[in-house]
Amino acid sequence: MKKLLLSLCSILLLVFSIVHVAAEDPYRFFDWNVTYGDIYPLGVKQQGILINGQFPGPEIYSVTNDNLIINVHNSLPEPFLISWNGVQQRRNSYEDGVYGTTCPIPPGKNFTYKLQVKDQIGSFFYFPSLAFHKAAGGYGAIKVLSRPRIPVPFPDPANDYSLLIGDWYHINHTKLKSILDFGHRLPFPQGVLINGRANGTSFTVEQGKTYRLRISNVGLQNTLNFRIEGHDLKLVEVEGTHTVQTTYSSIDVHVGQSYSVLITADQAPKDYYIVASTRFTDNVITSTASLHYSNSQQPISGPIPSGPTTQIDWSIKQARSIRTNLTASGPRPNPQGSYHYGLVNITKTFKLESSAAQVNGKQRYAINSVSFIPSDDTPLKLADYFKIGGVFQVGSIPDTPSRKPMYLDTSVMSADFRAFVEIVFQNHEDIVQSYHIDGYSFWVVGMDGGVWSPESRNQYNLRDAVSRCTTQVYPKSWTTIYVALDNVGMWNVRTEFWARQYLGQQFYLRVYSPVESIRDEYPIPNNALLCGKAAGRTTRPL
């Protein structure tokens, strides 16, 4: 009888394994070599970070639920990491690729990221997260397409182009890093790039056809206005959410944000300006590319079309008009509006305020008076997993402003798994802020000028607010988001103004489940790099 039971168990295990393998989501494999190389984005030679010899790096093409196996060889003379802006790393913050979650790849070594774009669609990007490498390149586009059986709320475009726009310095990134390390602010950028060039990039279209453009601001600090001469932009998707299809003449893309628009080649057959220019700056920097009709009879010519410059109200009005298409399917067949976020009870309110100050004679930036500094070479997530003391302390940053003078700490905020929280970003400064939360999308329910108060909730959009992973906060203003904390892990909350992030305007949100079940969080990857106080420990056998 015992042998019979063992045989039955073996058969059931075999059947389960076969079903599991048969049902497993597809795999896509990438092999990347990261090097320094000469680039000429502003017409003069400078050192850039190349991936497989490319600047920008290779595009990642994927479909909902695909497993992405990305083997990164670090051929730089210093440690390197890549992070995946907008990829939620469900139950798997170990792969997030930032200081607090992942050990850097040592020079001459490699590391294989194992990502899954679980229940996601949309437009995102990757970037290098350490040592101000982002100012040297190493970034690229990520496309996550819907599965064939999931309807998309617009016809298939004739082509699907990625446009990576961002401000740029001709100063070497190591010198920029040194300026920050010595406690100084960076100068104003020298240019704006479109797919790695200040001008000369071209996109070919056929007359009468419609195209999808995925626009991501991969820059270091500045909001950019994007427009195409003579062509309307129909917004269809924002960072994984199908939107109400509103038509704009131009769109503000804040740093770290991604948008998808449709354009139709319905004008006379010639070449037209594509423009990206800085917003809210005294000195407006402009970059151009060309929209080339395949039957063009005339090269690009004439004045560059102008766009908005310092107008805040224009930008706020546009931001409020971006709403979720409630009837469209997202990554699953159910409509995006089937989750009624406005009816869920808020379990906690966090209020986050930025600030700038001198600490020990050097420029620093903070959230709720705490300016983030690494504790040592041990990623916070590894310290948490191995229960290593002395690396960080939960609660080292308050969840409301403390009004204390700015101070340095390895700031980690605690949050409960499955809580539904309200986060208010309060900006008392004179600049546009842009905030990103790793591991999550959130509903941008409200934004306005002045100081947030409980009465501000009366103007929230509790029906069709856009769900995204990066939001702007206008000068002397507030923005409120709702977040369902359904993803256990150690998640970076940061400004996308990269110098401010580097100098402390960030922290980690520890979303914790006391159950410690693989249902809620995957075990540490068996190939995880172990460094700092985690060096010499073991991961797991499988």
Automatic annotation (TrEMBL):
Stored InterPro entries: Cu-oxidase-like_N, Cu-oxidase_2nd, Cu-oxidase_C, Cu-oxidase_fam, Cupredoxin, CuRO_1_AAO-like, CuRO_3_AO-like
Signal peptide: none
Residue ranges of every copy of the Plastocyanin-like domain listed in the record: 33-147, 160-296, 377-514
Keywords: Glycoprotein
Pfam families for the chain: Cu-oxidase (PF00394), Cu-oxidase_2 (PF07731), Cu-oxidase_3 (PF07732)
GO molecular function: copper ion binding; oxidoreductase activity
Protein origin, superkingdom: Eukaryota
Record-stated family: Belongs to the multicopper oxidase family.
The protein, known as: Putative laccase
Organism encoding this protein: Lupinus albus (White lupine)
